[in-house]
Amino acid sequence: MSRKYMLVSIGFLVLMVVLYIQLFLFSSVGQAEVTDRQHGSRMIVISKDNDLIYQHLRKSTVEAAQQYHINVENQTLQSWESTTLRDSVVFAIYSGAQAVAFQSNDPVFTQEMYELASEQGVQLILYESENYQRDTIPAVSANSYSIGTNTGQLAIDASGEEGCKAVLVLEKTQEGIPSTYQNMKVQGIMEVFGQHDDAEIVQTLSTEEEVYAGEKLANTLEGLKNTYNTIICLNAYTVPLIAQQVIDSNLVDKVQIIGYGMQQQTLDYVNRGVIYGTVTPDPDQMGNDIVAMLHTWVNNHSYDDNMPVPLHTITRENVDKFSRLWLETEQ
């Protein structure tokens, strides 16, 4: 009997050990799943590689990711061509991320990506873009109308008593597709110009991000010489190219340049007095808000479909402050 009792006892102990191990493993897996839901949200942010504003945007997304316990992967593109951006967004959607953030001013492409993301249960977030699907795609962006009024006021200030005869340079949009984002900027400029009898837009040009953009623009501006005294450029990539053209043509102080964005060359030209001033969204706030929006979404909280980003107007009087803030903390 004692031997039988011993075998039963040993069997019972073995069973208890097995059950305890299974219970421990099950509890660990369950806890891991909870942790993943709380702290494992994954986001991919796609941005340009060569622009100071995006360097700071990436930096601020990493800082915000630590605050909100979200995994953020920053993907940088050397080229902003439509095929490159499309491939990157599609890959990100199928990668298993909960959200993908990117910049797009092409409504057809944006709608296509929205439909694809919806099928995969992925949230799209636009930044510095037109909010084409206001009810479905959230956007973190500076107010385009305010960009227009701020740049318009800079142009008036730069022209002084001479009056403002401006050439307006816009980013080229896809043929046949109206750009609300651009139109609102232009409306903002015209609102300011409408308050001054001696302010007008003498010519509107469009340019795109390409190797020969500066050369093409230089030839166009040469053909318009003596008809303008101000250039308002809302294409951030082109602003330094225009500044160099003004230098090469010995037109510094004769032609005032109003820019958009905060490329390092742009800030340098503002400091040298070649560019009168530039208007730029706050990149640190933009990056933080992108991550905050995902955090709100994954926690099933309501959020505004458009989070406005503050604008900064930078002139020679305050460029040192922003250069210290953005250039010295670069990377």
UniProtKB/TrEMBL annotation:
Gene3D superfamilies, A to Z: 3.40.50.2300
Cellular localization per UniProt: Cell envelope
Endpoints of the signal sequence: none
Gene Ontology cellular-component terms listed: outer membrane-bounded periplasmic space
A GO molecular-function annotation: carbohydrate binding
Chain ranges of the Periplasmic binding protein domain: 44-296
Pfam families: Peripla_BP_4 (PF13407)
The family this protein is said to belong to: Belongs to the bacterial solute-binding protein 2 family.
UniProt-listed PANTHER family: ABC TRANSPORTER PERIPLASMIC-BINDING PROTEIN YPHF (PTHR30036:SF7), D-XYLOSE-BINDING PERIPLASMIC PROTEIN (PTHR30036)
Name by which UniProt lists this protein: Rhamnose ABC transporter, rhamnose-binding protein
